């Protein structure tokens, strides 16, 4: 492990995070609020820390960045971003402890949307903008952003790209990883701009259009309103945000292809079709359940609420327009299952990803067919391509590790005093980067009451979920740190 090289790259990333705080600082200066000093202090701390880390790595060549250094840089960059990002919350008095600030920042950067704020609207707009901006920065990825604006990282950037981009097999749009990062961020910005305009057209002001767009396109879920999207009570906003959450949960490579004049590339993709079918099935069955058992008298209202909550949970956004914790048991359990599914590979969504669920199901089917036809050569295909054995093994290992970590974290949260529903759903919601769970961490509740050790454990779950477990777990193996 080349520690000085890791330090140098982390120094640059600290500077990027600190520089991004000038955006919310604008709203603080505009409003003349009392969080100006908090942002200035946080920016200063970030730049000083970044400069120290960068100077510690003087003389190192970015081209020599290997897989070990990539794992360390990616994991530690998200931890450092959250550590610096927590400062505005803590220094401005929006949270009581630094632990709460770190939880809120990690929830933001990992696009989880789990919050400890009890009265969101009482905070200055600068703090609320920063809270939502952490979503947008973390959605496409801090490393991918760095690769887009720091082309001199060069060849070593591919290792960083592989370590951060979600999915079993990260896709490059071009041979050069820096150009791929620019294109992905270009699509991300374009869709974000389209949503801002759509929300503004419906009457939402610029501040709320931006913050809700950040939460939607990053599938994060932070809202500047106490009642989330449901506080508006406008069907137009519900449907607009549902559509953009759906788009954010799809592979951004497919969006790029569609924008290049190949819209059918979306439907030709097997994962996108599976993703769409899961949403349609869940929406239809929950709508029927709400009409029959949930006390809904309006079919349009039932469909709208069902579609919004299903897409919000599947894409791991976490916005809410209804308290689904009060829905029939079928609806609650189905939503809990959807927390494990997540969005598509290459999207901003969390969870296991639809492509992994597909591979696991096909692996089960393959084993059943093999029992019936022992001599038959059976291969798993995806989009017409035979999957390599190492990819199938990796997906299977990820699935097993995900379930094991979920069980262990749930056991730990239960040992801290949470009831079974809260323990299960809090871990499912943070490991899947969703945000709201059920019971005491439901859509109308928050995580403020969780004890400090519980908040640190759930913060680790958010990090594991966002970086898809292996990138983080690798750092706990002694071999990773050897030269």
Automatic annotation (TrEMBL):
Among Pfam families, the record links this protein to: TrkH
Alphabetized, the UniProt keywords read: Cell inner membrane, Cell membrane, Ion transport, Membrane, Metal-binding, Potassium, Potassium transport, Transmembrane, Transmembrane helix, Transport
Organism per entry: Dethiosulfovibrio peptidovorans DSM 11002
Gene Ontology MF terms in the entry: metal ion binding; potassium:chloride symporter activity
The family assignment reads:
Belongs to the TrkH potassium transport family.
Which PANTHER family does this chain map to?
Answer: TRK SYSTEM POTASSIUM UPTAKE PROTEIN TRKG-RELATED
Binding residues annotated for K(+), in chain numbering: 111-112, 220, 316-317, 433
Write down what this protein is called: Cation transporter
Positions of transmembrane segments: 38-57, 69-91, 136-161, 182-204, 236-257, 278-296, 333-352, 391-416, 456-477
Q: According to Swiss-Prot or TrEMBL, what is its membrane topology?
A: Multi-pass membrane protein
Give the location in the cell.
Cell inner membrane
Q: Output the InterPro entries linked to this UniProt entry.
A: Cat_transpt (IPR003445), TrkH (IPR004772)
């Amino acid at each position: 492990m080349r520690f000085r090289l890791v330090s140098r790259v982390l120094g640059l990333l600290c500077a990027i995070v600190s520089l991004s705080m000038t955006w919310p600082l604008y709203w603080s200066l505009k409003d003349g609020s009392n969080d100006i000093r908090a942002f200035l202090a946080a920016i200063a701390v970030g730049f000083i820390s970044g400069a120290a880390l960068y100077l510690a790595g003087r003389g190192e060549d970015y081209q020599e960045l290997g897989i070990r250094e990539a794992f360390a840089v990616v994991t530690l960059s998200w931890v450092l971003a959250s550590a610096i990002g927590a400062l505005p919350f803590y220094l401005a008095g929006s949270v009581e402890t630094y632990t709460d600030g770190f939880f809120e920042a990690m929830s933001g950067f990992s696009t989880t949307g789990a919050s400890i704020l009890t009265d969101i609207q009482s905070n200055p707009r600068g703090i609320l903008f920063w809270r939502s901006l952490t979503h947008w920065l973390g959605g496409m990825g801090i490393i991918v952003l760095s690769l887009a604006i720091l082309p001199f990282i060069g060849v070593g950037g591919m290792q960083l790209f592989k370590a951060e981009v979600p999915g079993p097999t990260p896709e490059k749009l071009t041979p050069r990883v820096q150009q791929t990062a620019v294109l992905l961020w270009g699509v991300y910005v374009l869709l974000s701009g389209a949503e801002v305009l759509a929300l503004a057209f419906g009457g939402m002001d610029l501040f709320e259009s931006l913050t809700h767009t950040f939460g939607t396109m990053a599938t994060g879920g932070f809202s500047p309103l106490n009642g989330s999207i449901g506080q508006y009570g406008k069907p137009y906003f519900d449907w607009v945000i549902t559509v953009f959450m759906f788009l954010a949960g799809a592979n951004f490579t497919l969006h790029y292809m569609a924008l290049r004049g190949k819209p059918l590339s979306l439907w030709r993709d097997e994962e996108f079709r599976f993703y769409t079918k899961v949403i349609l099935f869940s929406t239809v069955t929950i709508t029927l359940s709400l009409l029959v058992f949930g006390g809904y008298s309006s079919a349009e209202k039932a469909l709208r609420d069902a579609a919004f909550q299903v897409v919000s949970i599947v894409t791991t956004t976490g916005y809410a327009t209804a308290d689904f914790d009060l829905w029939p048991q079928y609806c609650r359990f189905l939503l809990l299952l959807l927390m494990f599914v997540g969005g598509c590979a290459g999207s901003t969504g969390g969870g296991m990803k639809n492509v992994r669920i597909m591979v696991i199901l096909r692996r089960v089917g393959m084993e059943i067919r093999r029992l019936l036809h022992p001599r038959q050569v059976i291969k798993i295909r995806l989009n017409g391509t035979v999957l390599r054995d190492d990819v199938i093994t990796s997906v299977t290992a990820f699935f097993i590790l995900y379930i094991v970590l979920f069980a262990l974290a749930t056991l730990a949260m239960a040992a801290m005093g949470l009831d079974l529903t809260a323990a299960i759903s809090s871990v499912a919601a943070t490991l899947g980067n969703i945000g709201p769970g059920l019971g005491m961490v439901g859509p109308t509740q928050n995580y403020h009451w969780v004890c400090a050790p519980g908040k640190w454990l759930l913060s680790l779950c958010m990090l594991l979920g966002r970086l898809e477990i292996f990138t983080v777990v690798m750092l706990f193996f002694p071999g990773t740190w050897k030269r």
